[in-house]
Amino acid sequence: GEETCAGFGGGSLYPQREGASCGCGSISRLKDGEIDSIAALQQAAAKYTGEANDLPGQGTTPDRVCPTTQMVLIPAGVFTMGTADPGIPQDGEGPPRRVHLNEFYMDAYEVSNAEFEIFVKATGHVTEAEKFGDSFVFEGLLSEKVKNDITQAVAAAPWWLPVKGANWKYPEGPDSNISNRMDHPVLHVSWNDAVAYCTWAEKRLPTEAEWEYACRGGLENRFFPWGNKLQPKGQHYTNIWQGEFPTQNTGEDGYTGTAPVTALPPNGYGLHNMVGNAWEWTADWWTVRHTTDETYSPKGPTSGTDRVKKGGSYMCHKSYCYRYRCAARSQNTPDSSASNLGFRCVADNLPG
């Protein structure tokens, strides 16, 4: 039978500090799969192990692809990568440098749960969150039952909790599901999982330069994909946190968690949710030191411990994680996963 895209269409506890971290970069695994609770150089707060969930390896590549597999052509050009006015200097947002890129194609949308499900059914892929038996989830999304079973948290960001059984199919743990979120971005995917999907789809992850160039949508030296004003004429262009982080999300943009990948207006290149909604993996190894020389199709360092992620997520708020800007950046180890981290693909030529 033909695969289809089922479900489509369809008073603070924590003192707030300007420029402080939401802890997104602190939720990494160590080399043996242990979850690192503060940072790669510090001891882990907790270790959970578990065998991979049994996933059927049945299925074939679908005859029909999901509507969100749409790719758009990003024209060749030169742009200013980074910023001279970093919002979070320690992240290596600067210095600004001129970067030349060839044309490429990019997914108009983040990879959705429906698309990832087709990949899993076709290949039998088991995600790293499933293999390790846990993944990080934002506390505000968890049921009381799940929270009561957790004894450890991330010391630097107590709203991040390691949840047994949390993975792409069960984003908030075993008592959750994605049946009503098939058109939302797939979450709890590691960098390695994202690479596996892109390879299967005859695509690849974008370099950080490609991602940032595409994010800017043809604009130069602007904060956001649409300009410098967060809400032009009062309209929401991104799914981020409104209210007081991390205790109250008013959902003024219409969402308190992820939004459908097709939601909210696109940028000048026709790309949706380049900032906010879900963090997106890139191909590059992480570094905070960049050359000021003009470069051509840079691919980042040749080695490292963490991979770059871009765009911020629905958890971002200016007081804690002002990273829903094109120049903003963060990092995680390649086997890390969380309830606000996904990806989209690029290709030099249209697949197929």
Automatic annotation (TrEMBL):
It is found in: Endoplasmic reticulum lumen. SUPFAM superfamilies: C-type lectin-like. GO terms for molecular function: formylglycine-generating oxidase activity; identical protein binding; metal ion binding. Keywords: Calcium, Copper, Disulfide bond, Endoplasmic reticulum, Glycoprotein, Metal-binding, Oxidoreductase, Signal. Residues 68-346 form the Sulfatase-modifying factor enzyme-like domain. Belongs to the sulfatase-modifying factor family. Pathway: Protein modification; sulfatase oxidation. This is Formylglycine-generating enzyme. It catalyses: L-cysteinyl-[sulfatase] + 2 a thiol + O2 = an organic disulfide + 3-oxo-L-alanyl-[sulfatase] + hydrogen sulfide + H2O + H(+). Monomer, homodimer and heterodimer with SUMF2.
